[in-house]
Records
---
Amino acid sequence: MSERATDVSREAATWLERREREDWSDADNSALETWLAQSPAHKLAFWRVKGAWSQTERLNALRPTAAQKPAVAPSRKTPTVLRFAAAALAVAAVGGFAASSMLSGPAYKTYSTGVGVRETITLPDGSQIELNTDTSVRVAEASLHRNVVLDRGEAFFQIKHDAAHPFVVTAGNSRVVDLGTKFTVRTETDRVEVALVEGRARIEPLDGNAPTRIATLSPGDVAVAEKDSLRVSTLPKRDLADDLGWRRGVLIFRRTTLAQAASQFNRYNAHKLIVPDAAVAELQLGGTFQTNNPELFARVARDVLGLRIENRGGETVISR
Amino acid sequence: METGGQNTDPLRAAMPGVEDWFLREIFPLEGLLMHFLRLNWRNKAELEDLRQEVYVRVYEAATKELPAQPKAFLLRTAHNLLVNRVKREQIVPIAAVGDLDEFDAAIDAPGPERSVIARDMLRRLQAALDRLPPRCREVVVLRRIEGLSRPEIALRMGISTDTVSEHLAHGMFVLAELLYGENELGRNT
């Protein structure tokens, strides 16, 4: 009977570990070669343990979860004033912004984030607004009217309830009236999405006289308002939490197509992911990824789905 | 001659034909192979040894010519090995070794999508990591995710570099079992 397989596997792992050490020498290497040449079983065990270990490179993608490290944005620790300053700087960095800010008049203060940046604004009443990547909001300065306009992007609102002064978020053609809540609002061209995490809120059209477009939301509800329609669906808690992964700096995918994943990453990064082939774009992937590392995602997609990636300067092309 | 620098990124390193073929085609089927062996072999203590022997036989064939249908070839090899063992050792009647075609058809039927396998691998990685002994897991995480060197890990955890190595080697061994085989080893620990 040959050597026990378990012993051979353990020995292979010991070799692999030694080979990864900083003091691995040529002499060590010859010793390893000798061991490998002793029997195919040695060689196979070494390939096998090496193959499995190389798979763990993907653990990188699970970083926040696996390391159990709460990914707190450093900006949260900076004093409010500094955060405001940072937000103001970000405003300056966003082109074409000044015009809309002037239109909005002096009663509003504008906060913006650039691509890949997150900021938290604390309002005088203690309410907080977390701005996601490439986002712009205007906040009414008069404390009597708690009005916020989401001009672009996505924000998470944690609102201190005040029945006398309802908090109103305007986005696209819709208005969200808060009844003491935590919720997110995301606006794209002709589309506003509101997801309610806690409390209650009402979404209604700006023109106000279309009863079919008014809905009161409960936790878990996601309302999507488009030009002339309003759809409300209820998401499982987990999915809602996934969608809020950006607050921790991560994107969480479950059965997500490459097309969707790429468009998510592209919201956060100047370095774009391109998936030209329609069939490839439909392939699905899951996992937790840092928003700011599209190239790691591309590598994982390559390894997991057996694709090819090509870095072309400002973009990475993923293809078959 | 290989250098340490090249070794740090085995995924990107060019692998010679047979090794590459094993990584791509054979090791990912280990769960299936173990399932087949478990179903058809009574002595569970011998499963790993049988696996090793199957791999060696597949390897010997592959060095001559890479089999065109890896899965069929792997299972056929396993089947033949079991049949020969039964004949040789006279332990159980030959009928005890299940019909391969039937088994093959059964496993072919609900072929998981590529995306399912992909999701599975990430999930399995995470689950495998969770199943490592705590200190071992910590070392693996520091090494693989934080990218710390052996001395840095030793310093961080207040243990010797030799102990770091022991944990790492054990982690490598167990992860191979869990990722490829999903076999009893992991469940017992």
---
Amino acid sequence: MEVSLAHYLAVSGLLFAIGMAGVLLRRNILVIFMCLELMLNAANLSLVAFTRFHLVDGLPNFNAQVLVFFIITVAAAEVAVGLAIIVALFRKMQTTHVEDLNSLKF
Amino acid sequence: MAPWILLFTPLVMAAAILFVGLRSKTLAAALAIGGALVTCVISWWLFLQPDPITAKIDWINLGAILGPNAPVDFAVPIGLSIDALAKSMLVIVCTIAPLVFIYSLGYMAHEEGYCRYFAGLSLFLFSMLGIVLADNFVMMFIFWELVGVSSYILIGHYFRRDSAAEASKQAFTVNRIGDFGFMLGILMFWLSTGTFVFADLAVENAPALATLGASPFWLATACVLVFCGTIGKSAQMPLHVWLPNSMEGPTPVSSLLHAATMVAAGVYLLARLFPVLEGSPGALTVIGWVGGITCFAAGLMGIQQNDIKRILAYSTISQLGYMVLGIAVAPLAGVAMFHLFTHAFFKCLLFLCSGSVILGMHHKQDIWEMGGLKNKMPVTFVTMVIGGLALMGFPYVTSGFYSKDLIIEFAYEAGWPWFLLALGGVFLTAMYTTRLLVVVFFGGPRSEEAKKAHESPAVMLFALVMLSIPAICAGFPPIQKRFFEIDHPHHLPGWVPIAIMVVLAVGIVATILLYRGGPKKDPVLIPFFANRLYIDAIYAQIVRWAQDGTAGALRFFDRWFIDGICVTFGAKLVSAFGFTLRFLQVGNIQAYAFFFGAGVVALLYFLVAR
Amino acid sequence: MSLILFWIFAGLMLLFGLGVVLMRNPVSSAMCLVVSFVGLASLFFTLDAFFIGIIQILVYAGAVMVLFLFIIMLLDLKAAPARKLNVMAWTGSGLVLVGFVALMMQVVLGNPALHAAMPALTADYDDVQQIGLALFTNFNFPFQIVGVLLLVATVGVVVLSRKELK
């Protein structure tokens, strides 16, 4: 049995689900943030898998790989800003626990 | 050229008073009186011209527009036509107006709004002249409304007094009711003939109207609708209520508006339309009944009033009833116009006399606070007696006798009911006039003011004396012949004039007997008459019901439909929706993430799995 | 052979991914994340996407995870104490996750087109050159924009990290 696109997509989906489980269940905002990164990279994996399995002129579609490159860049920037926000939040509230960060409600 | 100058002089004066005359009382009065004198001179000059004078400019010309049957030219000229009818009316208006203006110098000397008052008088004179000179319906209607506006201004002169403001509002509103019918009538005439011009409407000149005459109902309806304008303006039953209330205005205004000119406009309109009315016996019947009932019922109300001006107001309504009756019964309009002519002088005289009495009594108007004034105000007494006799139609020596008897004689020819109503009117006129004179001038003083009453200034007495001359002699046959071509009815039984005199004498004597000896209060009390046949009260009730009903319906509509469904319901719906959704806003990020994830799953399900 | 490699790398990635979620201590989570990302990078290598794989290790395993660890130490986070299980949250989340995975698998496994073997590359292959070419020609403008984005992020982080937020 050869490795097929279905394998990669299934693994990508599982990784996404794991990341989502972390977002939904963990209470530490830093861990939630890490799980977000997991979900982002699950998307990256499916993108790269598609480029490899749908060749253009015998080569992978590099446009999609450029997109992945951009995603990684933006994710890096996001991590930087997000962590800065978490630090500022921690200074203010002395907690990283999301259940304690619930002042934005009616 | 002269007609235009005649028409526009008062308007220019009114504008001049408003722009430059407000600073100086003298200047304002001089402008107004000067304008009135100019109109007086021009009108007499025009009167002496042998031929009818016309002047016309095109105003609106829409070309051919769609008529009821075929395209017709829609053209409205501004035209002045000065025929015999207009000439006699001009002389009435323009002779009385300057006298009233001069009289106002004395009466208004210490009143507020002196300059405004003279501007209003000038505007009123302008509007009245417009009615007299107009040669077509549209122009007449415009000036008709202008008269309404200027009377509103003048009646509401003391607008800070609630009763005056109410009275002016009522006068305007009631007139509007009549004017609505007038307008409909004008439109009906235009629909059937395609013209607004009076001269083209006369039966022999308007073929369309001749065919219209073949449909008596249509013609009668049009005539009666136009007559509605007269009912409003000339205070006929059932729209007479505004006239007594409008006595809230200054007394010279009452005399000018409600004795000589404004109310006469309605009768003048009928006279103008007489060539058309002749062709519609049905309309004349309606007019005759309205006039007859008015002259009798107004007399009934008049005999129990206590306010000196109100008595005169009801006598005016009654006399206007005679004129309207005269239009209906006589073979020519001159009969009614003749009574209008004489009535204008003696009623104006009576009002000015009452003004003099009121001024002498320091603005007390209740006749039961007066008494014994004949020694303190001799000139006023004599002139008022002259006016009163003329009003009653005292045989041979007063103007009222000649004109009123003429109407009654024609009424006899036209039918018994109208004759009896007119004869009853004579009796009632004798009663309320005698009562007024006896109570005011004879007996002892009934109040402090009556004891201290004084004669009025010379400028007012001048007007009184001047007016008492035409009040006596305006009806004498030579003068009448100069103005109107009228013959007495030919087959009149000899007893009719005698019957009129007998009724008159009985009325006078009975009243003198009733009120002799200077009683302190009215020895005769008939609440039904004193309360003006309860007509005012009924109107008040109707207006209140209509108003309350409309207001209630609107309130219901507003509260339940506008507020309830359109506004509040929408707002409540949004608010309830928001309130419900608010519970989703728990403040926990992971709950949001859960909703989001659930949404994604649901979306996926619908997109790919179904 | 490649199938065995795939399962090794994929298993590595998923296992340590689970570790991220399940570890109580944030430091352990971060370490698991690093290993998971290495597994992911290896999967990229099996897909012949060498440049992306290297970038993945450099940026994530290198820069981002170091940043995470710094912050964890800065905030001095301890292992989360065991709390009472939130039954509602676990049931809801479980349902959503099961639904998601089920749908995903139904689509992926049920589509025969996705089961084709990996096609062979027929041309000369130099992905760094190709990506560089695309980046500086077709995607030059987005590339510049991303540069601005990074600058803004840098400034933003500086502003956010000040003691007093104004």
